[in-house]
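Researcher: Go.
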Amino acid sequence: MKIELINPYVLKILMSVRKEDSINAISNRISLSYGWTYKWVRELAKLNVVKLTRMKVYLNEKSEFYKKTLRYIRYFLNKDIQFHYNVLELFGIKYVFTQTDAVFIWTKGGYNISRYKEFYPIFIKIRKKDKKLFESYCKRLNLRIKLKESRISL
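Model: Structure:
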């Protein structure tokens, strides 16, 4: 393994890549130029984490590098509250903050009630068509979710 593969771009790629994807879609989700995304995806292909065709990227979920990296992410980043907010952007889904989070953002951090380090739910609402995709990302990253009729809280 190359030590260069331990960087924030590769971590973002591994968190955001779908079973069948494209470099362009990944680059848009992680906000990195196509050229740099292509470079890191090619490096991951050399390790058999992904398979590249002319137009597609296929994730190899059985890759040891992939599994160990996700374990690392789950162990170290899952406890960080800011991570839960940041990772939403990598999913490539449409969402809005609701309840406490909507007010928290509207007041620029001036309202944060009924939450503490051990209990910090994040309230969001997602489109129905993105629900399965959202659930698969949460399962992959071991994010606990509570589904209600029209909202999902992390």
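Model: The mean pLDDT is 87.
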